[in-house]
Structure formats: C-alpha cells, structure tokens
Amino acid sequence: MATRCQSAGFIEFKLDFAASNHLAVGDIVRSDDFSAGGHLWRVICYPKGDEVGNGNYLSLYLRLVSDSKSEKIKAIIDAFLLGRNGAPSSSSHGKRWVHVYSSPDGSRSRGFPEFVKRSVLDQSDCVTDGFVTFMVVVIVLRDSPMAIPVPSSDIADHLGRLLDHANDGSTDVTFTVGTETFHAHRAVLAARSPVFKAQLFGSMADAKITLQGIRPEVFRILLRFMYTDAFPGDDSDNDNDDAEDSLPRDDDDEDEQEGYSDIDLFQDLLAAADMYHLDRLKLMCARKLWDRVSGETVAKLLVCAELRDCSELKSACLDFFLVEKNFKVAVLTDGYLQLMQSFPSVIAEIKARVRQI
C-alpha cells in the first residue's frame, strides 16, 4: 500500500546528566509532550537504565501519549545526541527505528534499553554544563489519500443470481435427475468441470441430458457449487456447523427421505464431486464428513474414502482407529464388515497400525 509523510515533529530533550548520578536504576525522566502527525508524543528516559541489567546504560524510549483508539500509527523515529555546538554529535550516538504504535492495551512505547553507555557519554563532547541534549524526530506515515479502494470479488453472487433465474430462457442445457429438471449454462459448467466440458461440447453433445445414479438434492448442491464455489448456507470458505440446515432437500417423498442422513448426503456429494473432477468440493465434503466422525461411522467413512480415492479423509479415519475406544466400537459396525469384504488391504493397514501402538 502506498504511504506518504503525513507530518513530522521533533523535540530537543535536555537531561541534567550530572544530577542523574544520584538516580537509581529504573528512575524516569520525562520530556514535555510534543506533537507530530496529529498525535502527542513523549520521550521517556532512564538515565541509569530501565532495569538492573542495563544499569551502565542510558535507556531511551518514545511513547505515544494521545489515544489512537483503533488506529495503528506507523512512525519513523530518529534519536541522536547534540554536541556542544548544537550540531549532531560527532561521536554518532544515534538510533533510528520504525514502529507501529497501536491501542492503549497494545504497544505504545518503543526505544532502546541500551541507547548509549554512560561512561562513553561522560567522555564525549555531548555534555555541556552538566547537561546532554537529545534530538528526537518523529515522522508519521499514513496511507496515501490517493489510494483507490477495490471491493472484494462478487462474481459468485452474480453467477448465483444467474442460476436463480435459470428459467428465464437464458440457459442452453437441461438435466433430468429423477423426477426433477434443472436448467443450466454450458459455458459455466464446462469452465468448472472437464467432465462436463467433454459431455457438453463433445461430438455427442445434447441439449437435454438425463443423469442416472444421482439424487436431485445432491445435483442441486453440485450445481450451486459450480456457479458460486460455495456450499449453500456457508458464509465463507470456513464451513459453518449449521450449514447443513440450509442445504436444499426434497420434501415431496417423505418415505424416500426417511433414513437418508447428512452423512449419506455428503457421501453422495463427495462421489459426485469425484465423478466431475471438482476437487475443492470433494475436500469440502470430506471435511463435512470428518466433522461427523464417531466410532459408529468411521468405518463407513473409510469405505467412502477408499472408494472415491480421498486420501485426506482416509488418513484421518485411519488415525481415528488408533484410539482404542474408537477401535472397539468400529469393529462391531456394518461399515467394518463392508471394509473386510471390499477392502481387505485397508483392514490389514488398520491392524498393522494398531499393533504398532
């Protein structure tokens, strides 16, 4: 982000160096407040160091005095000693630092606990009539007023509305899934899925397609994802625990819905994502399934992971088996029996891992 110099300010801070010999470690000498960049600042000096380990040094800090509220203030600070002639000391006792000063409970002071050694200062040309003078310059940086804000992308919203109005005659392909009909746009589907691209623009392309082996509610979520890159009901890439409450379901046939759980839905959706090479959706489904893992479901999920080549879900399920209480429950489920019948190599892998514990 472009920045510019908003304002600068400085102070000549005089310290009675001779009198400071009578101070203790941790004693403070403060400057008057001064203004820079629309904020008040103060120099904090510890003539004998700010803690025991720094007793041979003079410590110097700059503190933001005014309330910055939620604003973060980026500043460049130069601090150096002035010689007897008022010019910067030839001994080059100076420091520069850049710091972001924040809210009252954040970082409001910054400097150097070992700014200069007292013995070096005592022998330098900086002590005049027992006093030393520090020049502290503060340059406050602000975001450039010429910066042009750019809103976040809303293409998903636009494409989502395009799908919402798919019955307005703008679509060019129709899918029949069970007893339901879905209208869509070839270009969108082809851009999202290489399988749809081959199906919709190949030599056998058709404007009306009947899909077998997929439930209407699963295809509805799949279609919505291809337009918006999100689960229905999810506010962001981070899946919400209650997102499934907003997933579209078919209520026409209650008998058909009975016994069809969220796990069944996400397993079918993962299978569809795998079929159409939608890798992001596949992993989102895997995470939804993992959120529902238990001793009763882990074997069933492992079957799904192995069948659909989802290595991430498989690895997580295998680790879940290593917990003894989970293993004792899982081996009594129908899913484990299915694993034994269909994927004996996975059973062997589970047993090998258990023996290593």
TrEMBL record:
Protein known as: BTB/POZ and MATH domain-containing protein 1
A Gene Ontology BP annotation from the UniProt entry: protein ubiquitination
Domain of life of the organism encoding this protein: Eukaryota
Phylogenetic classification of the source organism: Eukaryota, Viridiplantae, Streptophyta, Embryophyta, Tracheophyta
PROSITE patterns: BTB (PS50097), MATH (PS50144)
Record SMART domains: BTB
Pathway: Protein modification; protein ubiquitination
BTB domain span: 171-235
MATH domain location: 12-138
Organism: Zea mays
Family, as annotated: Belongs to the Tdpoz family.
Region annotated Disordered, chain positions: 233-257
